Amino acid sequence: MSSRITIDPITRLEGHGKIEIFLDDSGEVSAAYFQVPELRGFESFCVGRQAEEMPNITNRICGVCPEAHHLAAIKGVDQAYGVQCLPAARRVRELIYNAFFVTDHTTHFYCLGGPDFIVGPDAPPSERNILGVIRKVGLDIGQQVIDCRKRNHHLIKQLGGRGVHLCGALPGGWSVPVTREQQAEFRAYAEENVAFASFSLKIFEEIVLKDPVYRELVLSDLYLHETHSMGTVDENMASNFYDGKIRIVDTLGQEVALYEPNNYLDHIAERVEPWSYLKFPYLKKFGWHGFVDGQGSGIYQATPLARLNVSDRLSTPLAQAEFERFYDTFGVRGKGGGGRNLPVHHRLATHWARLIELLHAAERMVELLDHPEICDPNVRQAVEPKAGIGVGSVEAPRGTLTHHYETDVRGVLTKVNMIVGTTNNNAPISLSIMKAAKGLIHGGKVTEGILNRVEMAFRLYDPCCSCATHALGKAPLELSLRRKSDGALLDRISRG
Amino acid sequence: MSEVVIGLGSPFLSDDSIGPRVVRALTGRVMPGVRLVEAHAGGLLLLEELDGAERAILVDALVDERRKPGEVLLCGVDATTRNASCGHDCTLAEALVIGRTMGMNLPPDEAITLVAVVAEDVSTFSEQLTPAVEAALGKVCETVCGVLLGQADYHKTL
Questions:
Q1: Which CATH number fits domain A84-221+346-382: 1.20.1440.230, 3.30.420.40, 1.10.645.10, 3.40.50.300?
Q2: What is the ipTM, given to two decimal places?
């Protein structure tokens, strides 16, 4: 019997993704694929428009990370128009961006990734969600999640014009400065964020790290992949979400590239596979050798875990302490070349890395709000459109996001390209699904618990398949077992 | 009564823009006090838009190959489109439970209506609706007004 298992749509994943698992005649997994829908005509939709429209177009492509697109877009416009962002405006941009990171990472941990640990990977789907987390940890945690989102969305709305799909970016600047009253208000928010992030790390320690079963799960071979890592770093080789150079370290933690974002084409190539609309980026230095990991493979990841792996340190004190504890726990702190940490390759550790980033973003907000010139009103400048090439890059919560624009003398776009965070992780996601499926599915037997453990292999990447799905219903998860020869339905598991 | 009309969808993905387009078309046509909102994501974000409303209408595109593009359906929270749920956090129904548990001032399920418009194309970047959905725009606006005036009951039309 040659069979095909389809998980479509994936629950708790932005957009309409689909997993397909192919079984051979003996019911063993022969292949597994992660697929996303095609959105058509983006370049032709954008070419011919004024470049400065892009921040307000691209931020509505995705309902999950509009802030990332908004800021990558305006950075691309800045560069194409040959203008340096004013220092005061840069601080506003970075403040908003870190507030966004706090909301996004909070949501992922408590609504998507965390339930697998807090409620349990074998719990029924009806329990394995934020409501289950509230029942397990207490009503107060739900209130804290809601409050965290509310205060940070309020900050984004005050400074960005809208709470979600903000519109504050201007070429070379920002539309409004931070007022003295706002500084005090937002400073209090940032302190609350730091406390909430510390509390979240405590929960992770108590519920995951101190539980031998979960600890074994995190350390198991099932969720282990040795790939290279990509992330943005500042001049001190510390992770920075808003700006810096792109650093890539190999599977042994050795730096293999450090480049300005506009040189990305010198380092990254894209593989096209006939079964997927989404391309598979890989490192040119190593080349494409198929869906394999290891030092010789060109496959890399761009995730919270990757961002820690490429960093020598974090720039804020509490996050730095957690960073050290993280690598100590895996026994690899300072064990790499030049005293660097060896990379952590256990993919479920990405959830922990995400919480460390949550703390880092919260602390960075405090730093920015304590800057003596945070209320500097000089956030706008006159900018003339011009011909140029601009590559804007930020670290989206789910990976390095790159916008590439080319303009004519009127500032009209002549070329547009984007590499989004999830695209960077397309190949490692497929690797992870394949490994989990092969390790868990035998003899054609699939249960709810097995299905969820396969899902966990990609949920940790926090992938965003972009935009909306529209079918009626509560986003059920359906697994179909089909005979490959004629597509006949042999079995089906559904939920939702 | 505090009422909100939420147009869900991306304004740049052809028929997915029907929600925002309806909200824009209703500007100035609904009673003062009816809040009009464009939203591009569901789940907890919708919760934040629903806070304080006693009645809510969501307008969204629906992909259903069994129906003709432009067809209009009314349904409730128990059968909302996946646009109304956010893959990054939770469904609208879950968000409502969370919000009520947290003491938010949310409309009851029976006061939330989804106006779903069958779409032909939601995956091509365009600011234009397909002809059948464009032709339905007026009817969708009338339907929303009818629900606001209490002249339509989704239980009878689902």
A1: 1.10.645.10
A2: 0.84
